[in-house]
Design a protein that fits this description.
The chain is α/β, with parallel strands linked by helices and about 280 residues long. The chain contains seven helices and 16 strands.
Amino acid sequence: MVLPNLTAFVSPLKKGRFHRRDAENAEILKIMFEKSKEMCAFFLLFGISRSYFCSAYSASPRCCSFFSGVINALKECGLEVLVLGADEHYPDSIFVEDVALLTKNCAIITNPGAPSRKGETAEIKKILSDYYADIEEIHDPGMVEAGDIMMVGSHFYIGLSERTNAKGAQQVIDILKKHEMSGSVIKLEKVLHLKTGLAYLEKNNLVACGEFLSEDEFQKFNILAIDDDESYAANCIWVNGRVLIPKGHPKAQDTIESAGYSTLEVDVSEFQKLDGGLSCLSLRF
C-alpha cells in the first residue's frame, strides 16, 4: 500500500477538483483531514475470479477500518484481492466504477463527464490490458460514467444523466452490438447515477427506489422496493450468490433477504458523505 503525502491529497480539493458535490464535499474532506492525525491512504484493489477492481481512500483509523471491511467482504465472497499503487493526482478515482465498463466480451474505457476525472482512464486501460484482449474507448463529444450502466445478462441499461450524455450512450450501444450484446437508455430525473437507485440481483430480481419504481422499462422485473428513507441501500452488489449491502438499513436488508438472498453488511458511511455508493468502489467482471 502506498501512503501519499497528506497535503498533496487535500490540496486538489481546495482547488475544486473534486466533483462529487464540489465545494460541499471539499469542505467535508478538509474537516476530516484536519481532524485526523493519521496519514491519508489512497489505493486501488483488483480482484480475480468474478473480479473486482476497487478504489478507496482513508483519512483516519475509522476510514481504514471501513475499507478493511470492504476488503474482507470481497474475500468472504470468494474473491482474490490485489492492492495497487496510489494515484495522487485524481482524488475522485476512489469511485473507480465510473471509468470502465467490464463485460464478458470486452472492456469499455469511458469518458467521464467530470473534467477532473478524464485522466483516470489512461491508468485503468493499462491495467485492464492484462485481462482483456478487446478494449474499446468512448470519445468526445460522448460522455459516459459507468455508474450509469447496469448489466442484466447481455443487455445493458444506460442512464442519461449530467455525467452520461446521449452521444456517449450511443457509442456504448454501438460497441455492445459489435460484441454481440445490447443496450438501451433510461433518462434520469433526480439521482446522480443510474445505479444510485438500482441494483440487479440476478434471477429477475431488481432492487429499486424512487423514480425507478414506476419506470415502464423495469416492470418486467420482480421489483424489490426500497423505502425512500433507506434509498442509499438500493446501491447494493450481488457477488457469487450473496448481496453486499450498506450497513444500517434494516428494512432494505429484510426486503432483500425475504427474496431469498444471504446478505453481508458493509459499513461505507464515510463514502456516503461524498455521494459515493458501495458499487462505486469497484469494477466487477
